[in-house]
């Protein structure tokens, strides 16, 4: 099933759609990081979130409970990132010695 | 901060040609959605007005259909820059729904099945400027466009016209809704291009 088809059926794409927009804000690839849903506790990579991007902003929802985990609004001169739906974000980094 | 002046409305633009600044004309009806589309059977649908004192006024689908309805023909303007002219709706004016509601509130927060919210000054829901609509273009409103019923507040950007509306809470203090709490303008007048906070 193609991405376009998935969007037609479910109205959303997966969290990989956040990679480009979030790369404006962060030096790391946040889609590979793990987050925890504040509502149901489901933990997983940001890439597994359900992203509704045909909207005034990007709305990423938990695949377990539909809770809004992340919102990203891009204005002409700023990005608004709302992470109140997430307990934590774990970013894998190179081991320091 | 943006300039929010609830008193600044009522300009009559029905006959005016042209589009608000930054908008383009579309003939289709784009579907925007921040989440899964709720499927609410008509016999389970309810609309509730809750006052600042907690008093509730409730309508079932059948009671809602028994209210006098209007057929507004209006231009709609989405903050994502498309505008659609002369759209035809059928629904109940908020003047009717709020007629017997006693309140001192200045603000309203509309809330929807699925969890969406949007805030407006109460004045912007009154005096023939806002409706709860259940039909579009002669047909029942499809779930993708907010059916069974949505708010219609055409003088503000279309995100204020909450899809799948289930109620309005009247408040003595302003409470930002879903997009208003994430960078979008609190009031959202398309003619003043109030898209984002600070516009
Ligand atoms: Zn969850």
General description of the model:
The complex is a heterodimer of chains A (97) and B (199). Chain A has one domain (3-90). Chain A has a five-stranded antiparallel beta sheet. A three-stranded antiparallel beta sheet of chain A has the order 3-2-8, with no helix packed on it. Chain A is mainly beta and 97 residues long. Chain A has helices at residues 3-10, 19-23; strands spanning 13-14, 34-37, 43-45, 50-52, 58-61, 68-75, 78-82, 86-90. Residues 1-6 of chain A have low confidence and may be disordered. Chain B has one domain: Alpha-Beta Complex (Sulfite Oxidase, Chain A, domain 2). By secondary structure, chain B is mainly beta. The longest helix of chain B has 5 residues, at 61-65. In chain B, β8 and β9 (139-140) form a beta hairpin. Chain B is 5% helix and 29% strand. Chain B is globular, with a radius of gyration of 16 Å. The interface between A and B is medium-sized, with 19 and 20 residues. Zinc ion binds next to loops of chain A.
Summarize the helices and strands and which ones pair or pack.
The complex is a heterodimer of chains A (97) and B (199).
Chain A: H1 3-10, E1 13-14, H2 19-23, E2 34-37, E3 43-45, E4 50-52, E5 58-61, E6 68-75, E7 78-82, E8 86-90
Antiparallel strand pairs in A: 1-4, 2-3, 2-8, 4-5, 5-6, 6-7
Chain B: E1 24-25, E2 46-50, E3 56-60, H1 61-65, E4 73-77, E5 82-93, H2 94-97, E6 107-112, E7 117-121, E8 131-136, E9 139-140, E10 150-152, E11 165-171
Parallel strand pairs in B: 1-5, 2-11
Antiparallel strand pairs in B: 2-3, 4-5, 5-8, 6-7, 6-11, 8-9, 8-10
Bound molecules: zinc ion.
Residues 37, 39-40, 42, 62, 64-65, 67 of chain A line the site of zinc ion.
The strand count of chain A comes to 8
Whole-number tally of structural domains of chain B: 1
Number of E-state strands of chain B: 11
So what's the overall shape of chain A? globular
Question: Can you tag this structure with a few keywords?
Answer:
heterodimer; A: 97 residues; mainly beta; 8 strands; 35% strand; globular; B: 199 residues; Sulfite Oxidase, Chain A, domain 2; 5-stranded mixed sheet; binds zinc ion; OxRdtase_Mopterin-bd_dom (chain B); OxRdtase_Mopterin-bd_sf (chain B); Sulfite oxidase-like oxidoreductase (chain B); DUF6510 (chain A)
């Amino acid at each position: 099933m193609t991405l376009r088809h998935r969007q037609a059926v479910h109205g959303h794409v997966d969290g990989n759609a956040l990679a480009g927009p979030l790369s404006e804000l962060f030096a790391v690839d946040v889609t590979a990081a793990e987050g925890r849903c504040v509502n149901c506790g489901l933990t997983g990579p940001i890439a597994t979130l359900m992203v509704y991007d045909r909207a005034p902003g990007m709305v990423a929802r938990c695949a377990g409970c539909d809770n809004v985990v992340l919102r990203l609004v891009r204005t002409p001169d700023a990005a608004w990132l709302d992470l109140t739906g997430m307990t934590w974000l774990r970013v894998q980094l190179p081991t320091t010695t | 901060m943006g300039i929010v002046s609830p008193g600044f409305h009522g300009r009559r633009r029905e006959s005016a040609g042209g589009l608000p600044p930054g908008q383009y004309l579309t003939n289709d009806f784009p579907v925007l959605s921040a989440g899964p589309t709720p499927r609410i059977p008509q016999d389970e649908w309810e609309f509730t007005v809750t006052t600042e004192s907690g008093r509730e006024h409730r309508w079932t689908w059948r009671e809602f259909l028994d209210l006098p309805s209007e057929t507004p023909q209006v231009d709609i303007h989405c903050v994502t820059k498309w505008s659609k002219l002369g759209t035809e709706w059928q629904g109940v004016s908020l003047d009717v729904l709020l007629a017997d509601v006693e309140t001192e509130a200045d603000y309203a927060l509309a809330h929807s099945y699925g969890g969406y919210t949007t805030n407006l000054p109460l004045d912007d829901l009154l005096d023939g400027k806002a409706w709860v609509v259940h039909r579009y273009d002669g047909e029942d409103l499809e779930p993708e466009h907010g059916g069974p019923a949505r708010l219609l507040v055409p003088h503000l950007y279309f995100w204020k016209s909450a899809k799948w509306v289930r109620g309005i809470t009247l408040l003595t203090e302003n409470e930002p809704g879903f997009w208003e709490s994430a960078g979008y303008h609190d009031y959202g007048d398309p003619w003043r291009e109030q898209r984002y906070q600070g516009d």
